[in-house]
What does this fold into?
Amino acid sequence: MVPDTEFSRTRECVLRFGWNTTCYQIVNPGIRHWHMEDAVVGYVENHGVKVVAGAPVCPEGDLPHVLEAFENGHEVVYVGAEERVYQEALETQRYSISVMGAQPVWSPSSWIKSVDGDASLRAQLNRAKNKEVRVFEWSAEQATRNPDLQRVLVQWLSTRGLPPMHFLVEPDTLGFLNDRRVFVAERKGEVVGFTTLSPIPTRRGWLTEQFVRAKQAPNGTVELLVDSAIRAVEKDGAQMLTMGIVPLSRKAPTNPSDPWWLRFTMGWVRAHGRRFYNFDGLEWFKDKFHPDSWDPIYVISTRRPFPFKHLYALTESFTRIPPWLAILKGAVGAVKQEAAWALSGR
It folds into this structure.
């Protein structure tokens, strides 16, 4: 267990200085913390590489000093970095930079205007409403380890192509919800979906962490969930929101300076990884809400050129097992799922 004093110090720092979209993810289980004055870095370590969750959390002017103190000769890779660390990496020219994807960003007012002005989106919301789906915000006390939410989460995870991911995409956030907001879709008293939002404090923003849907949820449930959540935070004065990264998004700029093996790997994963992860479907879903922008998300390494060792280390941060074993487990699961569909006549 993480000592309460360390957890409290980390959480307090995030709530004071958190700017990166994924800043709140460093309070999740399994993340180690490095502290210095008004700064904290959330990271894991694999194969001698410190894999940082997003970026250091600190006052903006302290970022160069914090980066130097944390790295201190170690091999480090920043995963999910955004504009602040990217600009520092460009200026110092000590890093290799690669684009890992892009995230859609809205102001809540533009979201509402886009949804209200799109007949197709309105039809999807009405489809769920006509099936008696209603969305309620649950308190942290009500939602924490709630068995109905846990049941839907387990059911949803069973449909994923790969074993559950962790690190920046931790699926089990139901153990600590004090600063998060939880919106639950119910149909005739039964939970059919939920979404959690984590804060981006200094930008007065929110990140939608996941859109969990039960098998029996009517079409339009996820759209209604997200729309209801965003209208709620807009009323409370939110200024920005994002649905988080789409890995290998076509909305992201390419980086011609990537080593050939990295360009090949990313291209191969996008072309052949659909069995495990629907990149195009995720991008299409988020793009249909008409984002104000698609912001690039980076992987930034202290080694030049970008080494394979850092790619392997960061991948293992998400899988928590060797990446090849995660792929093997995903392939076995996919074969079992397709066999079940064949036997059921689907």
Summary: The CA atoms of residues 144 and 174 lie 5 Å apart.
